Amino acid sequence: MATDSWALAVDEQEAAAESLSTLHLKDEKTKPDANGEFQLLRWGWKKDRAAQSLLNKLIRSNLVDTTNQVEVLQRDPTSPLYSVKSFEELRLKPQLLQGVYAMGFNRPSKIQENALPMMLAEPPQNLIAQSQSGTGKTAAFVLAMLSRVEPGNKYPQCLCLSPTYELALQTGKVIEQMGNFYPELKLAYAVRGNKLERGQKISEQIVIGTPGTVLDWCSKLKFIDPKKIKVFVLDEADVMIATQGHQDQSIRIQRMLPRDCQMLLFSATFEDSVWKFAQKVVPDPNIIKLKREEETLDTIKQYYVLCNNRDEKFRALCNIYGAITIAQAMIFCHTRKTAGWLAAELSREGHQVALLSGEMMVEQRAAVIERFREGKEKVLVTTNVCARGIDVEQVSVVINFDLPVDKDGNPDNETYLHRIGRTGRFGKRGLAINMVDSKHSMNILNRIQEHFNKKINKLDTDDLDEIEKINN
Ligand SMILES: Nc1ncnc2c1ncn2[C@@H]1O[C@H](COP(=O)(O)OP(=O)(O)OP(=O)(O)O)[C@@H](O)[C@H]1O
């Protein structure tokens, strides 16, 4: 292996972490300094998928519940399929059970019901698991790592790869919380900038880090003896492969591990590229999939308003607000500039407005969304890019101040559906209003109608009676 090839391939995000000091669990002096964290959050921004994933983690306090069935594909179809309805059934070590309950978990989530017995089985089995964000994957693999680790052995036994420093830190927090009743247990962060003395061996039992640095620590710097790793976790595989170099680095690390090391891979989505990668790094896997609930437009009333320019769109919006009571609304604009302008105009009209904008750091975005979720603001103005992949389920009115288009200017049907669609479970009635201000945007609207085969009715916003009717 070329000695410096991985160093060249290390992504820019890790390089930005240069200022970080050594990080260890339960060791305050070696926690990242606020400045380092700040810089890294800004860096994380550059990676849309990683940022989205982090944002969802930061704003989510509960499990996403789903009514969809778990699909299980066993490596050995003849072996019995276990599922558990309680944590007691798993025969966890008492300290671990204590940790689980201290986190407020009463029973396993849907995916955990099947994944945990598989992950904790003897002999250890490999697993590839896919389910949407918030369904309990992280908690599941942390539980598996903590079950297998022997705190008395002072060397790394569990290795977890995360796509970015911030995501590693979030997972680290879960390990810390769940392992709270293991006083001897320590965690090391293998992230660029966490510099150790050459020739040093790590005594922490769990290592979590980004692929480039973990690879360095395992091979070039030899801080970790990969042959002693018992559990290898690859988290957020879909985000991972979106970053150049990470896929190769992960595969190289996996090749250094012993044959009987348990390999676990998790992903929120499962496109072809993720599946190909998963098969390369997880031999003989069991597979668990939990489908995301489909969104539909069936319970949504859709309208469009014809205007000539931005100011007319704003007036139409004010008329709508004047005629019907809107508890909370999300308004989407095409550019940051329009979003900023609209938020200011709405504030001037006396609305409590929150603005979610592209230049904000991840944590600022999370704070804005959380305030909106709590109802502190009634209107959330945002751009498409900014709110992609973020679920704010309670919103019943969505206004497309600009219609969603892709980078080539074609209708972005997927985004349209995600903005205004509802899953079966949140199947409350909703209202969507689209602002059309040119021939071009009328054409986009027509194509969206055709795509979904659902009529979007015209609304005359100068006719108050007509507007009132839409809310019945
Ligand atoms: N069995 C459980 N009971 C109650 N809450 C749980 C349980 N498992 C996980 N949670 C909580 O639900 C939330 C989502 O769980 P978790 O982060 O493990 O999901 P995830 O699928 O890994 O999502 P993401 O990919 O976004 O991290 C977290 O706040 C977690 O503490």
From TrEMBL:
Give GO cellular component annotations, separated by semicolons. cytoplasm; nucleus
**Enzyme Commission number, as recorded:** 3.6.4.13
EC top class, as a word? hydrolase
Keywords of the record, alphabetical order, are: ATP-binding, Cytoplasm, Helicase, Hydrolase, Nucleotide-binding, Nucleus, RNA-binding
Where does the UniProt entry say this protein principally localizes?
Answer: cytoplasm
**GO MF terms, alphabetically ordered:** ATP binding; hydrolase activity; RNA binding; RNA helicase activity
User: What InterPro entries does this protein map onto?
Assistant: DEAD/DEAH_box_helicase_dom, Helicase_ATP-bd, Helicase_C-like, P-loop_NTPase, RNA_helicase_DEAD_Q_motif
Q: Where in the cell is it found?
A: Cytoplasm; Nucleus
What sections of the sequence does the record tag as coiled-coil? none
**Keyword Cytoplasm part of the UniProt annotation:** yes
Q: Which reaction(s) are listed as its catalytic activity?
A: ATP + H2O = ADP + phosphate + H(+)
- Please give the name of this protein: RNA helicase
